[in-house]
Amino acid sequence: MKIVITDYINMEFVEEKKLFQSVGAQLEVTQCRTEEEVIEVSQGAIGLINSEIPITRKIIESLPDLKVIAKYSIGVDNIDVVAATENNVFVANVPDYCQEEVANHALALIMTLTQKIVALDHSVKQGKWSFSEGAPLHRISTQTVGLISYGKIARNLASKLKAIGFQVIAYDPYYQKSNQDASIELVSLEELMRRSDVVSLHAPLIKETYHMINKDVLSLAKPNAIVINTGRGPVIKESDLIDALDTGKIAGAGLDVLEHEPIDVNHALLAMDNVIITPHAAFYSEESFQELKRKTALNIMDVLKGKKPRYSVNNF
């Protein structure tokens, strides 16, 4: 039984190897960069473990022994789930491994930007000593955070925001249809943009959310609004965000994810003092990293034992 890791970022695989060896499976660790490389190294593989390289229809249909693709992530937008389903290949992710970490990272970005921490730090280092360098600053209890998508991470964040004193609203048509929650005010996207001092994005990347934050949506925002994205980069149309920041239509942004990663060293966002960028790091703690690796391997183990993956994306 052959399992192939197609690509990875800063990982060791001791735990995965032990798990697979316990059932007689062989783990091959590769660092593929092209579709052809994945096809070549994965011949005979029952399972693929994937990070960032796209797993396309061509790859799936070129691997007749393939039974499962397990993603080192929550999002599976780089896997052709439709093609996998049509070929009776399970796709599995780890939807619950970094809820606390991402919520805390979003909170850190929100607090840093709303409290003007970076601007005040820079002013002190430039020889200034005045609270007015951060003006205007507003009391937290007067500010509203709008959450776009109200899944587990957003709900974790909402509880923290409310404890601090923020008012919280959310937009999520899917949540609204199935899981009414009296503790949150659900509003339309348009109302959320008009009311929010902070807009925090937690939406998955699907057809309906691609570039959902664009020029038209940003035009509804308050001029003092801050946009936070710890979800998926392409949910924001980056050129429109840059224009909104340049022209003062919004006040700032905190971004852990971008349309194209890693960011180009000459990217316009890097020159903006009102933007904080972190390198797609919100998921990370030592504990969440180990949980991700273990649960990804267990998705494969389930299939090797003749069962469905515990975190199957495409149940059939």
UniProtKB/TrEMBL annotation:
Keyword ATP-binding: no
Keyword Oxidoreductase: yes
GO MF annotation: an example: NAD binding
Domain D-isomer specific 2-hydroxyacid dehydrogenase catalytic: 15-314
Sequence similarity: Belongs to the D-isomer specific 2-hydroxyacid dehydrogenase family.
Matching CDD domains: CtBP_dh
SUPFAM superfamilies attached to this UniProt entry: Formate/glycerate dehydrogenase catalytic domain-like, NAD(P)-binding Rossmann-fold domains
Protein's UniProt name: D-3-phosphoglycerate dehydrogenase
Keywords, alphabetical: NAD, Oxidoreductase
